Every structure is written in C-alpha cells, then in structure tokens.
C-alpha cells in the first residue's frame, strides 16, 4: 500500500493544482477548515478556481485568503455570512456565485461522491433557486432537478486518522467534511494526529481510508473563534 502521509501541505498538493480547476472544501465558517492546505493553495498562485464550500470563511481567514488574492473565479455556496470581501466581489460582479440551499449543497456533494449525476428535491421550488432547472411532478408535488458535484480535488479537515487514511472527525468540525471528501477524484485530508493502522475502533471511523489519497498533519492550530459571546459577571 502506498504511503499516504506527506510531510507538508505543499508536497501533498504537488502535481494536483492547475488553473481553472474545481475544488471541494470542507468546513463551516472557521470550524473544520483545512487551514494548511488553503495556505498552500494560496502560495501556489493557482487561479480561476471554482470552489464548492458552505461559505468562504471570513475576511482574511480560511477560504477568505483565496478571495483576497483573487484566485477564485466562482463559489458554489449556501452562505456569504460575515465575509465582507466575498460580498463586495459578488456585488461588484468580480466573483461568480452559485447560491445553493445548505442541505441541497451537502446532498449534491454526497450524490456526486456516490456516482449520482442528479436528483430531485422540493427545496427551492417556486423561488429563484429553481430558475433554469428542470421541474418534475411526483405524486402531485413539484420537484427541481439538482446536479451532483464532483470536483478535481477535495480538501478536508479531520481530527484523528490512522496510517491507512481511516479518519475520525471531532464533533461539529465534521460538518461538510464527510460529503466533500467523497466528491472529488483526489481527497487530501489535513488532520491533527496520525496513529498506527489498527489503533482506531472500526465502529468509530467516520470516513473510510479508501476515500483519502493523501494526508498531512496540520497541528498545532490556533483555534480561532468567529464570534465570541460572553455573559457579564453577576454582581457579588
């Protein structure tokens, strides 16, 4: 079996990046994002990227770094959120954005990974989401056709993996990472720890190693908080 663990993000991406490519990126805001891989993509200078991701991080963090350097041509996302540069580029016509309902986006990636080219859903019927899409009636209800997503490369963030690539996500950091991992020709996983094969409980594995072609250890991380909410101390 070929060794999957690479020394760093740049070497793990070597030979895979090209202008105009399509990426799937796991994460939700700043939770569960493949930080080291994003930095390496930025440093590579690859451009005209189409990226499927729930959002684009925040200004200057996560995929927001690639927006800042103008390496992204199109985002397939469900949320612009607090990323002002994302919003500015979209409203200025500098960035193409395909808005996709959050559950539909997850299912489009899951479907693509399962070899399903399209599926029908009620989500978006009668709205702008349905514009230009086939509508079909099932049992008297209208559904719209959504296409599966299958990219050139998927970049994901995991918690713990074994040397074979079997991977565990940690709590909410699981988010979009699992469906994104299957929806590409090559999946690169950035993890916090790698343990010997056979160490992980098979019942605890979230993503089988067959989907993971390359891995890096990204730790240690500076755990960033998008919104810090605190409660005022009560008077003694």
Protein model, in words:
It comes from Sphingobium rhizovicinum. InterPro entries: 3-oxoacid_CoA-transf_A, CoA_trans_fam_I, NagB/RpiA_transferase-like. Pfam families: CoA_trans (PF01144). Keywords: Transferase. One of its GO terms (molecular function) is transferase activity. The protein has 236 residues and is an alpha/beta fold. It has one domain: Glutaconate Coenzyme A-transferase, CATH 3.40.1080.10. Helix content is 19%, strand content 25%. It is built from six helices and 13 strands. It has helices at 9-13, 35-44, 64-68, 84-91, 102-113, 177-182, and strands spanning 22-25, 49-52, 72-77, 96-99, 118-121, 135-138, 141-147, 151-157, 160-162, 167-168, 184-191, 193-195, 214-217. A seven-stranded parallel beta sheet has the order 4-3-2-1-8-11-13. Strand 3, helix 4 (84-91) and strand 4 (96-99) form a beta-alpha-beta unit. The chain is globular and about 55 Å long. The mean pLDDT is 95.
């Amino acid at each position: 079996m070929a060794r999957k663990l690479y020394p760093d993000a740049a070497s793990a991406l070597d030979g895979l990046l090209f202008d105009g490519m399509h990426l799937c990126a796991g994460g939700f805001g700043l939770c569960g994002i493949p930080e080291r891989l994003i930095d390496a993509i930025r440093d590579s200078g690859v451009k005209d990227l189409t990226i499927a991701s729930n959002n684009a991080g925040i200004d200057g963090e996560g995929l927001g770094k690639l927006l800042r350097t103008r390496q992204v041509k199109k985002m397939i996302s469900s949320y612009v959120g607090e990323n002002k540069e994302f919003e500015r580029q979209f409203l200025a016509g500098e960035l193409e954005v395909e808005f996709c309902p959050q559950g539909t986006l997850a299912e489009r990636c899951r479907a693509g990974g399962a070899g399903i080219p399209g599926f029908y859903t009620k989500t978006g019927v009668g709205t702008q989401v349905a514009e230009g899409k086939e509508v079909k009636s099932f049992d008297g209800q209208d559904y719209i056709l959504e296409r599966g997503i299958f990219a050139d490369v998927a970049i994901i963030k995991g918690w713990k993996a074994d040397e074979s690539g079997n991977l565990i996500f940690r709590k909410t950091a699981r988010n979009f990472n699992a469906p994104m991992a299957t929806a590409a020709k090559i999946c690169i996983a950035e993890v916090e720890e790698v343990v010997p094969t056979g160490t992980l409980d098979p019942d605890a594995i979230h993503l089988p190693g067959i989907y993971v072609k390359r891995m890096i250890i990204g730790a240690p991380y500076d755990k960033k908080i998008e919104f810090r909410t605190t409660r005022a101390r009560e008077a003694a």
